[in-house]
Amino acid sequence: MNYRYKIAVSGAAQVSHCAKNIEELAKEVGKEIARQKCILITGATTGAPYFAALGCKEKGGFSVGFSPASSEAAHVKTYRLPVDAFDIIIYTGFDYSGRNLLMTNAADGVILICGRMGTLNEFTTAFEDQKPIGVLEGSGGIADKIRMIATGPHRGVKKIVYDKDPKRLVKKLIELIKKEKRKNLKGRSRKK
User: Fold this and answer.
1) DSSP per residue, 33-98
2) 10 class by beta-carbon count within 10 Å (0-12 exposed, 13-18 middle, 19+ buried)
3) 29, 50, 67, 149: which has the fewest Cβ within 10 Å?
């Protein structure tokens, strides 16, 4: 299969502070990523990213997990993370902050669903790298604070789309990624 883009889903591993329907919201994001023939990337963790991976798998999509662990044994026993929803798991051995950086850099765009400090870390990495970002508003946590955080003094151009509907959000992000890819290709052809 020819996949279009790699979309990372960043979100809360513990979901008690998230919207009551967080599982359905995250699964719908994963399903739409699969429907749009994109690859789902997550931190191979529990909670919202895991639900997105389950949704992706349900629709026959392809998902890659970036683990903080250095091996499958450490992933399961030390970090207590799942393996069942991923087609491939990359064992980074870089703990959470290193995993976050690798996962975010591997993606063409990032979607935030709920979240806590790790999600904020992934957001700032994507923001600083000028990656297209989609924010699922109404999902709770950090995702519902991004509009405020991203307003005001900042470096670079904001490439952020917001929506409360998972399907629309994925489609908006894909349009932003396409625009970015076209811009990148134009810049490359000028250098020749």
Assistant:
1) HHHTT-EEEE-S-SHHHHHHHHHHHHTT-EEEEEESSSSHHIIIIIS----TT-SEEEE--SHHHH
2) buried
3) 149
Asked if 98 and 68 touch (Cβ cutoff 8 Å), the reply is: yes
Q: Which amino acid, one-letter code, is at 182? A: R
Pairing assessment for the beta strands 6-11 and 109-113 based on DSSP bridges:
parallel
Report if residue 1 sits inside a domain.
no
Q: Is 89 domain-assigned?
A: yes
Q: CATH number of the domain at 132, please.
A: 3.40.50.450
**Do the domain assignments include residue 98?**
yes
Give the position of tokens 């709770």: 140
